[in-house]
Amino acid sequence: MAAFSLIELVFVLGVAATLAAASLPQLAASVDEFRAAGAARYVAARLQQARVRAIARNRDTALRIAHDARGYVVSVVEDGNRNGVLARDVMDGVDTAIGPAEHLVDQFPGVDFGAIGGIPGAEGSTAPGSDPIRLGVADSVTFTATGTATSGSLYVRGQRTIQYVVRIYGETGRTRILRYNPRTRTWFSR
User: Fold this and answer.
1) Whole-number Cα distances in Å, 90 to 3, 51, 66, 78
2) What is the pLDDT of residues 161-178, one digit of tens each?
3) Among 120, 122, 121, 110, which Cα is nearest to 160's?
4) How far apart are CA 179 and CA 189, in angstroms?
């Protein structure tokens, strides 16, 4: 019966440790990519849920994004008096939140709305600069009963240089997810 010597065992363990150490950065990058992609898909799904709700209930429904001390907060609000989702109506309780508000970073650690400095706008839109929520002054996407929406872009940033954008097309209310390639400085469909 053959046995392993202590030197052989130490050598094999050393090779295994070296291979594991070499693969850890790639594994970490893959986890970051997975989280950022998942967050972008989640945002797009939340937008489509709001759109379906607006059509089904024949009532404007908005996905609102606000900023607090922990980051960005997402909530869905339904028009209560048929004049659109308005900030003053939300504050007065006329337009009501559907479900709890949530932080993206709670579900996707290390990921939030944000933009890498100096990136170009997606599909010829205005570059995000320091504002990753490119929806106009209201920072909300309102879907109407006919399925149309507020046009704009929501930039989702992972760790390192992982960057996504969720584009909202107003005439159709549809969304599209694009990924940024920092080497070519271009956006591509994911």
Assistant:
1) 75, 19, 13, 9
2) 899 999 999 999 999 999
3) 110
4) 6
User: What was the pLDDT predicted at 21?
Assistant: 72
Q: What phi and psi values does residue 40 have, to the nearest 5 degrees?
A: -65, -40
* 53 contacts: CB under 8 Å, gap ≥ 6: 61, 76, 78, 98, 143
Residue type present at position 107:
Q
Tell me if 31 sits within 8 A of 39, measured CB to CB. no
**Residue 68 contacts by C-beta under 8 Å, 6 or more apart in sequence?**
none
In the chain the domains, ranked by start, together with CATH numbers, are 10-189 (3.55.40.10)
Q: Is the dihedral of CA 35, 70, 165, 28 positive or negative?
A: negative
> Is 170 in contact with 151 (CB distance < 8 Å)?
yes
Q: Is the pTM of this model over 0.90?
A: no
The Cα 169–Cα 94 span in angstroms is 27
- Is the Cβ–Cβ distance between 134 and 153 less than 8 Å? yes
Label residue 45 left, alpha or beta by phi (over 0 means left) and psi (-120 to 50 means alpha). Answer: alpha
* Tokens found for residue 78: 């339904």
From residue 41, give the alpha-carbon distance in Å to each of 6, 150, 162: 51, 19, 14
